Known about the structure:
alpha/beta, 2 domains, two-stranded antiparallel sheet, seven-stranded mixed β-sheet, Rossmann fold
Amino acid sequence: MPVRRPARPLTIGILAxxxxxxxxxxxxxxxxxxxxxxxxAEVYRTSVISGVSGPLSASSGLxxxxxxxxxxxxxxSFDTLLVAxxxxxxxxxxxxxxxxxxxxxxxxxxRFGSVCSGALLLAETGLLEGRRVTTHWSVAATLERxxxxxxxxxxxxHVRDGRVRTAAGVTAGLDLALALVEEDLGSEVAKRVAAQLxxxxxxxxxxLQFSRRGESSVSGRSALQEVQxxxxxNPAQDARTGTLARRAGLxxxxxxxxxxxxxxxxPAAWVEAVRVDIARRMLEDGDRPKxxxxxxxxxxxxTFRRVFQRHAGISPAEYRRRYExxxxx
Length: 329
């Protein structure tokens, strides 16, 4: 099958902030470089952009020397512009000059988007209003809260909405870059790239299978912490709201109001997330779904399957198959 090639090299710009996640930059770059190799020509011409002229430190400590500084005139137009994420993005104030540059530059590109928590930075420009996007599961709630006009598809590995392309995070940046290669050069080249990089052409499942959003922890005032510790120690026991309220010595209505205020979710939602978290660990240890359902307080295995699928994006049996820790001896 003949390789589809653009009339000229497609320029790819990846914007890196201080403390950038290295794989958010290097992953897509390797995919585009491999697409060049598989095409036998320079189909993509890539550039890393930053706000400093000297070395930029990534979150791993590795230093990057960017190709361009975003304030220079020659950075003004790319075929594709991607904003890379950083582990600290949620807590760090954004550079107003960088936001302004993205706001002016992205509309001039054929397509633009983000990798991982870079969606938080891109959202500040207003360019994502009314769009469907994804981001790393750990910052999805922050993105939804800060920018309610954006629809966040939390389980998606990458999302295409008009000219906008967003990736869930870290290795999902490779999935996004591969999808862009498929858009530009066709599925045959993209499949060859995936084979060479030993990655899925279409990765099964979404990002929630990797999520640890419900990782067991306790918080809030002491009465609530006591209740949470009891649930963690007794996941199979009756944990209905009324039961938990009695353990806390509160009326059900006051207990729900207090729990939601201090923990950020209803008691029922917290209990469900904790049970799924415990179920994940049991499945990873090799326990079968039927055993896990009973041990984690689900009324039957069908209910467990539905709840687990909603949280993890895949069935308990499939999760166990993928993530079971091999035994020794």
